[in-house]
Amino acid sequence: MNIFRFAGDMTHLISILVLLLKIYATKSCSGISLKTQELYALVFLTRYLDLFTDFISVYNTIMKLVFIASSLAVVCCMRMHRVVRRSYDKDLDTFRHYFLILASFVLALLVNEKFTFQEIFWAFSIYLEALAILPQLVLLQRSGNVDNLTGQYVFFLGAYRAFYILNWIYRYFTEQHFSRWIACVSGLVQTVLYADFFYYYFISWKNNAKMQLPA
Amino acid sequence: SKDQVAKDEL
To answer: Which of A48, A83, A115, B1 is 20 to 30 A from A19 in CA distance terms?
Structure first.
């Protein structure tokens, strides 16, 4: 564990807490893409298949459980909760995310560290996570204005993978056999996808104005 | 196994 990875995990945890805060405090999920939440639930379920077989550390196990439980809780809440579900922007959240699942799975079959069930699903979860934010970014683009908590949620969600890139650079230089190139390339793509969001987020922060995405 | 570096990251 290094400071970059710990900062990344904490940033990721903060993004989840901000999302939960937004939904429970405002009893609304407007501006949140259910499709992105479903993709993230799938990412965690397919990435942590080794949850009960490979014990890494208490921290690792607890964080995996938190990520799986929180992503499923948000999906269930957005689908079932009678008050929250009414605020879901159903007609704006129309990204065909099944294509993202299919593309990630095909790529995982072609490019993986080892052609085993666990490794293919791990690579699938890595590729899918890079693309999972797309429905959310499209939804924000369409809805134009971004409320503070939603903006902070997406900001921290994007920032966490940037910390992981620093972590991979650090581990590359400090550990002999470290090669996590699938996660690294995918993590770079993931972070770049946030580039324009980060730009408009910074502009709104600098002008102390409400965040506006160009229609 | 050694060659399959355990996935120690989240």
So the answer is: A48
